[in-house]
Amino acid sequence: MKKLHVTQKANNLKVSRYSFVRVFSLATAATFLSNVSPVYAKSFDIIEKVLQSIEKATATYSQGKDKTIVSTYDNHINSNDSRLSKANNLMALNTASAQKVNISAADSANLMEKTLLDAEEKYKKSLINPRSFVDNNEDTVIIDVSDFSRNNLITRMSRNAGLQRNTDGTSVVVGNGRIPNTGGQTDNVAIGYEVKIKAVDSVAVGYGSEVDKKFSVAVGHLAHSVGQGSIAIGGEGRQDANPLPPGARTIANGEESIAIGRRAKTNSEASIALGSNAQATGDFAITMGSQAQTTREDSIAIGHMAHALGKSSIALGSEYNKTGEKDYTTAKGDYSTALGAVSKALGYGSLAVGHRAYAVDKDAISMGFYSKANAEGSIVVGARAEAVQKNSSAFGTDAKATAVGSIALGASSVADVSSQAFGFDPLLKKATTATSSAWKSGQGAVSVGTLDKTRQIINVAAGSKDTDAVNVAQLKSLQTYVDKGWKLSVNGKNDKAIGIDGTVDLAAGSANLTLTKGEKDNNIKFDLARSITVDKIQTGDNTLDATGLVIANGPKITTSGIDAGGKKIRAIANGDISATSTDAVNGSQLYQSTRGLKVYSHGMDFIDPRIKGTNSIAIGSNAASENQNAIAIGTDAKASVQNGIALGSNSIADVEAGVAGYDPITKENVNRQDPAWHSTLGALSIGRSQKIGNIEYGQTRQIVGVAAGTKDTDAVNVAQLKALQDAIYPNWELSVDGKNKTNVNADNPMDLAAGSANLTLTKGEKDNKVKFDLARSVTVDKIQTGNNILDATGLVIGNGPKITTSGIDAGGKKI
Q1: Which of left, alpha, beta for 149 (phi over 0: left; psi -120 to 50: alpha)?
Q2: pLDDT one-digit tens code per residue, 295-326
Q3: Which Pfam families does UniProt cross-reference here (predicted)?
Q4: Which of 126, 362, 455, 574 has a beta carbon 3.0–4.6 Å from 71's, enabling a disulfide?
């Protein structure tokens, strides 16, 4: 390592901007740098110390024939107006052919251009030679450089005849070029062939380098600094003898911009382009990476071929695919952000995070490996998750939302049901015709699985509004009410509850009565048989029994003969009884998911979420996703089973797939291999369950805004529960001949009773069978059979005898 230290201590030399000391320092450096041997010069007094030590100095240089190494002038002007060194304070380095010169304080020697007596005239050319280039006796600062092996100056390193500087400024120029007179202090540095500087306080280094405005720097082959205070660093090497293509230069166009790299370009204020062919267009834009581009203000592009094309956009990522058109990391929309190799944020305000994550439209968010948010306002989180329609969301690996406003929640879930869906009405046993928000959805569906891959929604609080989800506890409460049924009794005795599946069998106690029910309705008719058998019939004071007919105060027809009188017997009509029953709601109709949840946590106590399972997701402080495809969203949320979903703070999803649902009919969990009854994925939990002793201390949530479910695997809302309640309560209506209708239910039981002693009703003590019959003794106003009438006046036989209170009329018949 060579070292050179020179410190000026003399004060009797002329000290000006370009004094001997400056020239000597440059000449000493040139000799030092050309010397292959170590040379050390410590701080010394130029007058006293240099002359004492220079005799021992050695310089090794080109070994051509007798060449002078260094020649210079000081500022002494002789009578011939030629610039010569003063006699007693300069030193000459020896040429190869000259004898070494020893200099003392009294010697007169020229340090830089003193011609030695033994040197020939033709070898007086200098390696570094100051030249006068103005006509007003100004100090010389231009330096010409000669070839080491020839006397002629190197053409492109010789000064140009037009080079000049202003007396108020300070410039350094090496090479053939021009610095125009700026009319003030220039203070420029120009090194290289055809260098151009058009302003003050600037630097241009390299072949054809240019500076257009002040305070700028251009370094490199054809580097061009255009804007004020700009910096252009980068070379464009020669390409044979062909001219360079247009724009094939490193150019800093913008004010205070920086372009570094081959063909790097900045075009706007304070922009930065760093890398080969990097381009920064837009005020304050930053581009870093080979062929990276920014085209709008405040944008940032980092990485090979990264493109930030929108205002305030950010593109960070590399891995350019040359075979695909525009297949590189791109932030195209204003305020968009693309983070990840070949990720694309194309819409206004969009965000794409992950390898080949795509956020295509306005406000779209795509996070995950190959995730796609294809529509405005869509959100996807998870590997290969996809949201196709406007405002749709998909959370979880391979989750997909294809309907407008739909939400797919959980790994492999599919949300494909659009808004305007009508829920199933258990009363109608088909889709409802109601148009309220409780029965007709206003948004796309929330899906937590597929038709063949279902999840339970657990830890659900009881719903309050018609659009809230219903939990099993509410279903059980309804079941308890339904199980009460309604009570049946006869004459207030032997009452027994009739359950929802109970049967009331009405039967006649004898052949004297007939009971009929419509084939397609629940209307029941009671009537006397066309032929009846009784022990006695009494009407008024008239009696008909096995002995015959006895008319009080009138004729009688008995075994003894005919006693006058005849009575009519007419059919007695009984009222219709109608009953309506509905099917019980099954557990699968309670299956309904909540809407999507987005949680943001911020604070000093935030605990990073934990992920252990493959393709799992954990969002929120201290959230934990501990199994494959599990999702935990919310502070302290935990999903510990495969495909489980913990939604909301403090929620725990610990119920695995394969859980059988509760069947209100059997009053136990049913083991059916049906997705509606048997879950195929880990459960979705929106709370947590905790049991201390025999008491449940769970944390639950309501699920609100739930549309009525349609399919067996859809969630049920309160409106459907109320509809089921309306179908069960009142249970059925009771009327006679369509009059005096009343409801028969658990709170208003039906009691059957005979209207008179003519009928008898009996019911089994342990069953629900009721028997209707005529009393053994019947009292009526009139009995009619065919054209024969028996009443209080007697018996009148059509076209035959009469026995009445008026007497006996044989009617032409024998008595």
Answers
A1: alpha
A2: 999 999 999 999 999 999 999 998 777 776 77
A3: YadA_head (PF05658), YadA_stalk (PF05662)
A4: 126
Per-residue model confidence (pLDDT) at position 107: 40
219 phi, psi to nearest 5 deg: -130, 120
Element (H, E) at 160: none
Q: How big is the chain by its Cα radius of gyration, in Å?
A: 56
What number of residues does the chain have?
A: 815
Angle at 287 between CA 285 and CA 288, to 5 degrees: 150
Closest CA to 504 of 190, 197, 768: 768
What pTM did the predictor assign?
Answer: 0.61
Residues 6+ apart with CB under 8 A from 324: none
Statement: residue 274 has pLDDT above 60? yes
Q: Give the integer Cα–Cα distance in Å for 378 and 391.
A: 5
CA-CA distance, 536 to 514, in Å (whole number)? Answer: 20
Burial class (CB in 10 A: 0-12, 13-18, 19+), 18: middle
Q: How does 314-346 read in b/e, with b if 16+ C-beta sit within 10 Å?
A: bbbbbbbeeeeeeebbbbbbbbbbbbbbbbbbb
Please give the structure tokens belonging to residue 781.
Answer: 């106003």
C-beta separation of 801 from 562 below 8 A: yes
Distance of CA 265 to the CA centre of its chain: 36
Sign of CA dihedral 439, 441, 445, 450: positive
E-strand stretches of 348-485: 351-353, 358-359, 365-367, 372-373, 379-381, 386-387, 393-395, 400-401, 407-409, 414-415, 424-425, 430-431, 446-447, 457-458
Q: Given pLDDT bands bounded at 50, 70 and 90, which one contains residue 401?
A: very high
Residues 6+ apart with CB under 8 A from 498: 485, 486, 487, 488, 504, 768
